[in-house]
Structures are given as structure tokens and as C-alpha cells.
Amino acid sequence: MLNNNLLFQGNKNTGGKFQTYTVYGEYIYTSSDYGVTWTARTAAGSRYWCGIAMSADGKYQTATDGGYNVGYVYVSADYGVTWTAKTSTRPGEAYWHEVAVSETGQIQTVAASNGHIFVSVNYGSTWIDRTSAGSGNWWGLAMSADGATQIIYDAWNAQYSYIKKSIDYGASWNDIPGSNGYTFQYFSMSSDAKYITGTVGNAMYPRRSTDYGATWQPVGVQFWYRGISLSETGQYQTLVSDYTSGSYICTSSNYGATWTQRTAAGSKYWYGISISADGKIQVAIAEGYLCTSFDFGVTWVATINNDGKFRMNVAINKK
Q1: Where are the beta strands (DSSP E) in 121-248?
Q2: Is the pTM of this model over 0.70?
Q3: Residue 3: count of CB within 10 angstroms of its CB
Q4: Residues 132, 170, 57, CA angle at the centre, nearest 5°?
Q5: Alpha-carbon torsion angle 252, 310, 80, 184, nearest 10
Q6: Which of 35, 52, 125, 293 is 20 to 30 Å from 59 at the Cα level?
Q7: Is residue 15 scored above 80 in pLDDT?
């Protein structure tokens, strides 16, 4: 548990006050005090929870149930206290995986593996099936602060699949030329979408773009990375890895140009990472662990230590 000194550090910035993580095959957990105490939202049910995303203030939150052919998208408008299933979003023979929410919470997008992309423009109240994007094995959904720019990757065939980009709030999607040939898994972008970093499967280098996704360059250390999160400007970036040996948190403070392994946090099965708008507060999850940093990812403390829970994803309010 966080001590009072660490809590004081968190109180210097409203970012990170609201935190939510999902546990696969169990519950959604929320905190409203920088991760000091946690509440299981059992009323939402024990489900195959996968993705979680929230508005910048934490009020609007959206989670995906990855149960094959049985899951829905769930939304909350009270900081994750209560959750409502959007029954119009059952994906058929697929499962929900990806979710992204704009800064205000008004624009929301979810995507299914072996399914479609759905978009909401009214805080998750109703959803539109964007059939023009087709059916895909969608991974790595990310959006700009205003929700206008969004990217996603169809992982059906890495040799031929491209990153798809929308510049109209998810209404239409187009391939980014030259972005094929890599098995992208997760993306995160700066608030203006200028800086985008993506993790790549098969022990490949992460790749970053500094021109709104037009071109991509390999960066960092070649490894099996999973989660990625960027600060508002893109200056601070953090990667996590879920590989067995040498799985460390990696941070960058220069827009993803160079990276540092934070070995003191330990080698774990890291699954997700979320950082505040200024990059100061960061929360990472691993199998059995939740770790927090109050100094831009330089040092970490285990706020939940080896409890055995299979955490799938984490989100904190940006500011």
C-alpha cells in the first residue's frame, strides 16, 4: 500500500487520482485516491474483462468484455462506480478487445477481434457499427485527445495488413501507405496525434512516428513488448513487456528517441501501462502486481504485491 509520502506526491497533480484495472475472469476494480484503496465493482459481474479507457477527468469510463460471442461493451458515467451493458454491441462470433476514449469522453471507439469497429459520439450512450472498415482482427486502437484522429491495426496477416487511420472521429478508415509488414499490437499517441509509438510482436523493435503516422522508424531495444502509454505532449513514453525473461519497464523522456530499462521495478509479466498527461504519475500492471511511479517512471513501488490476479489492462485519468 502507498505510504502517506507517496500519496502526497500524487496529490500535487490531479492526474492519476482515478484508476481502474480489469481482471480477466473476475471483476473491474476502481480507486479514487491514487491507488491507495481499491473497490471491486462486483455489480458489473465477473467477466472476461479486457480493455479499459477513461476520459481525462475519469468520469466517463468504458470497458470491454472479451467473452467469445457473449461479451458486451460496458460504460460508466460516475467514475467507474456503476456500469451499464450496451446490449447493441454484442460482436457475434468475435470478442471485444480494444477501446479508446477521448479527453471529454464524448468520442469512444471499440473494436472486436474477428469483428467490427463500433463508434459512439455521445459518451457511450449509443453505438454505430462502422461496417465500411470491414471485419478484422483489430489491435492497438488509439485516439487523439479530441477523438478526431484514430489508428488501429488488423492483425490477420502481418505481411499484407496496414495500419488504418481515421481523421473523422472513426467514421471512415484508410490504410497508411508503407505501414505493412509488421505485427503491431498496441499504440499510444500524443494529444495532437503528432507522436505515435507502437509495439510490435515477434520480438521486434518498437516503432515510432513523429509525423502523425506518415512514416515509422524502429526505436529502443528489440524485445517482446505489450503495453505503451504516452504523455499529452508525447515527450514521456513508457513501454512494458510480458516476456518471461528480462521483461522490464522501459521509459523515454525525449519523445521515444532513446529508452532506459527500469530494472529496479523487476522482471515480471507486465500487461498494461497508463500515464498522466504530464507523464509524472504512471501505473503499470503485471500478473499479480500493480506498480506506481511518481517521478516519470524512474522509480517504482509495488502498491499491490503478488496477489495472483490476472490483470489485463489499466487506465488512469490524465489530468
Answers
A1: 128-129, 136-143, 150-154, 163-166, 174-175, 184-189, 196-200, 207-209, 217-218, 225-230, 237-241
A2: yes
A3: 9
A4: 155
A5: 40
A6: 293
A7: yes
